[in-house]
Amino acid sequence: MTEQKDIKQEIVITGFGGQGIVLAGRILGEAVVLGDHRQSTLVQSYGPEARGGACSAEVMISDEPIQYPYVRHPDILICMSQSGYDKFIEQLKPEGTLIIDHDLVKPRGIDRTFFSIPCTRMAEELGRVMMANIVMLGFFTAITKAVSLESARNAVLESVPKGTEETNTAAFNKGHDYGLAVLKGREKKATGKAGA
């Protein structure tokens, strides 16, 4: 079962058209509902340019029925573009979790801890830059535990084009493993400081 910190979590995934932002939101919502048997809503938004334009997916996760599906102040903000970061960073709750694509987003003007992963570069290394969203989903799953690993992985398999299941699973696992390594590194650092 998942480790749930809150009864309700508000999540914004942002980037540009063509990165699979809305697909990532849909996969997350399906994982929560079908796998973890919780409530979820998805609200998507595109800029007028479509591919290359601003794009976001607002995902609500709750143990109770969701009355209002729009995210005002996300608990978790995932940024895969600089413009998405610039647009949403002020809305992130003070204690919220920020996750960015290391190569595409420079987190200017914040003095909070955040998580970063070079998900686009990792997807390129796997031979498909289009899988950066799946790498990011794996990382998000490891870092936040907002959805269970099994449910997220199953939702990825159900949502990707037939014939790409193996490469998408590899992308998800790569992101998840990277997330676990980041958490382990932070834990060691914290333990080292406590022991000093």
Observed structural traits:
Pyruvate-ferredoxin Oxidoreductase, domain 3, 43% helix, disordered N terminus, six-stranded mixed sheet, alpha/beta, 6 helices
Layout of helices and strands:
Blueprint: E1 8-16, H1 21-35, E2 39-46, E3 54-62, E4 76-79, H2 82-88, E5 97-101, E6 115-117, H3 119-125, H4 132-144, H5 149-159, H6 165-195
Helix pairs in contact: 1-5, 3-4, 4-5, 4-6, 5-6
Physical arrangement of strands within the biggest beta sheet? 2-3-1-4-5-6
Average residue pLDDT:
91
Strand content: 15-25%
Number of strands: 6
- Main pleated-sheet profile: 6 strands, mixed
Helical residue percent band: 40-55%
Considering the protein shown, what is the CATH homologous superfamily? Answer: Pyruvate-ferredoxin oxidoreductase, PFOR, domain III
Please trace the helix and strand order, writing H or E for each element. EHEEEHEEHHHH
What does this structure look like?
- With 196 residues, the chain is of the alpha/beta class.
- The chain has a single domain (8-195), classed as Pyruvate-ferredoxin oxidoreductase, PFOR, domain III (Pyruvate-ferredoxin Oxidoreductase, domain 3), CATH 3.40.920.
- The chain is built from 6 helices and 6 strands, in the order βαβββαββαααα.
- It has a 6-stranded mixed β-sheet with strand order 2-3-1-4-5-6, with helices on both faces.
- Strand 4, helix 2 and strand 5 form a beta-alpha-beta unit.
- Helix 1 (21-35) crosses helix 5 and helix 3 packs across helix 4.
